[in-house]
User: Which sequence fits this backbone?
């Protein structure tokens, strides 16, 4: 590729990313996460985050106590639309019930713009495609954590797992859709 071709392609991609981010920020409850480098640094320090596509390096974090980790590989099958909708609705119900009014969820997308999400601001949870960062990890790490990083969800795209962390979030698993959270593989970081 010629240098001029690369510059043109880079400019087009940069413009597309700016438009997409503006669309995301226009959705109710979603805002740019201030100091996302600091949040990532704290997350990495607390959970020993180690991104990798290699199975020998998984689960990607030190899973805390309490936590429950579920395989989500079955979601990518014939019931994809139904299961991703159930997952989206479960996340939204957890956030609405757990996060106090006036607080937000840190929504981290590894090596991409990150967001603060206010679950009480009127965002409509109709489908996974409407989320700026979806609950289902589809090629990147998607992390939804409380502001103090004490609980939330860690989605691992290559292991195809979701780790539910923190006492309050783990206790909400009793309301989780069984079809989505049917394959428990670790409890408190220990294989079951």
Assistant:
């Amino acid at each position: 590729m010629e240098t001029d071709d690369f510059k043109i392609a880079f400019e087009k991609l940069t413009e597309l990313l700016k438009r997409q981010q503006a669309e995301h920020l226009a959705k109710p409850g979603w805002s740019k996460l201030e100091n996302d480098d600091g949040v990532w640094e704290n997350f990495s320090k607390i959970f020993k985050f180690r991104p990798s596509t290699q199975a020998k390096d998984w689960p990607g974090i030190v899973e805390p106590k309490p936590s429950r980790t579920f395989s989500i590989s079955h979601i990518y099958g014939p019931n994809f639309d139904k299961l991703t909708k159930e997952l989206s609705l479960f996340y939204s119900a957890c956030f609405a019930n757990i996060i106090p009014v006036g607080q937000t969820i840190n929504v981290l997308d590894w090596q991409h713009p990150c967001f603060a999400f206010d679950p009480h601001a009127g965002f409509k949870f109709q489908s996974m495609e409407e989320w700026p960062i979806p609950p289902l990890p589809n090629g990147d790490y998607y992390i939804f954590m409380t502001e103090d990083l004490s609980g939330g969800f860690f989605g691992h795209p290559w292991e195809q797992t979701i780790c539910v962390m923190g006492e309050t979030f783990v206790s909400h698993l009793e309301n989780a859709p069984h079809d989505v959270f049917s394959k428990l593989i670790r409890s408190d970081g220990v294989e079951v």
Summary: The beta strands are 30-32, 67-71, 105-109, 115-117, 142-146, 152-156, 161-165, 184-187, 190-191. The mean pLDDT is 89.
